[in-house]
Prior knowledge:
Layout: H1 4-9, H2 12-21, E1 43-47, H3 54-63, E2 68-69, E3 78-84, H4 95-104, E4 108-118, H5 127-146, E5 152-158, H6 167-174, E6 184-188, E7 207-211, H7 216-227, E8 231-236, H8 241-250, E9 254-257, H9 265-271, E10 277-282, H10 297-320, E11 324-333, H11 337-340, H12 346-367, E12 372-378, H13 384-387, H14 391-399, H15 409-420, E13 431-434
Parallel strand pairs: 1-2, 1-3, 3-4, 4-5, 5-6, 7-8, 7-10, 8-9, 10-11, 11-12, 12-13
Amino acid sequence: MGDRYASFANSGPGRGLVKRLGLPDPPRLRRHRPGDALTEGPVLIGAAPGGRLGDQVRKVLAGAGVETLDEAVTDGTHGALIFDASGITDVPALGELYEFFHPYARSVRPSGRVIVLGTPPEAAGHPHEATAQRALEGLTRSIGKEFGRGITSQLVYVEPGGEGALESTLRFLLSGRSAYVSGQVIRIGAGTPPAPADWQQPLAGKSALVTGAARGIGAAIARVLARDGADVIALDVPAAGEALAGVANDVRGRAIQLDLTAEGAGQRLASHLSRPLDIVVHNAGITRDRTIAKMDAAGWDSVLAVNLVAPTRINDALLDAGLIAAGGRIVGVASIAGIAGNRGQTNYATSKAGVIGLVQSSAPGLRERDITINAVAPGFIETAMTARMPVTLREAGRRMNSLAQGGLPVDVAETIAWLASPGSGTITGNVVRVCGQSLLGA
């Protein structure tokens, strides 16, 4: 089911009515199409004195064929605003943010981008610097709610020594791939990961496993990873075999029918693999919604088994067998419910918060093995499942975010593809919400 309200709001009669009545105004989002430029206009770059990231930003954008400016253009058609705040070392210097954003707040094109770069507070050299750097989060989240017109806003913390790791993240955040990602805080660690030979096919030669791949978000993940060059293994339960085969055929990949909650599933999966995987995406998930007072034990156990126990066991089995390669990527699919909770979903929210815990607890040890682990946390995504929701709840889910609309499965897939890229090798332990900056949760 499509979003009929959004279609109406973007029609000729609808635009006038929406404006006159002050109704939610879902903009048309710029999504990625192969061959698209990163931005639809020049990028205005600003910096606080002493910033260490501006030169690297200019280098990356020049290599990507993006025009950069140090002074605003007169016609107000900036494709993005990027501000290097890494030079802000005390609270008074936060005024540099106002000086940059105040005159240019209305100069960004629809579906443009705002990116602020800083230093992780925990890496700051003085408490005053840490205080000022933490303040950047309030700025970027607020801009995401103020600018409207499909403009997104992100904060990227870059550890000292991570300046050479910016390109993958800048390419993602500036492009249409990040259409439904806004208000996020991304941490880039120290180091310089290898750049893909071809940024249009960054996953060429990589092998990827996607669980729950027969339909919806999982099918979109398989297709986007394949589009970006990966050899995809699509996995789902035997009952979904026909749909799974269709997805595998679409991506010219391989299908594995396996119940990941079965005894010994990890070992059986390992037996299907002829070489170590480069990418593992834990997408398989179920819901069994009831309030905890009405939920039976089977409803609790089944959701935890699929959504959390299985990814944990599969990781252990693959790692113990040496079947995740050095330089590998593990990505879990969490949920806004795991951050904010949700009435009637104590089991689901527990499992998805557990996915976040799995990422955060595993990241330090996996870093030593040159493997990253991250999670995406979708909000309201237009799928067959959300189409079956009662209309009132469905409309509330669509509108309760800064972009006033639901996301698409491809939005989740694009975010996972960025985290899976070779160029994202110093990004680990992150949880990135794909929710249009939901008004629920942090």
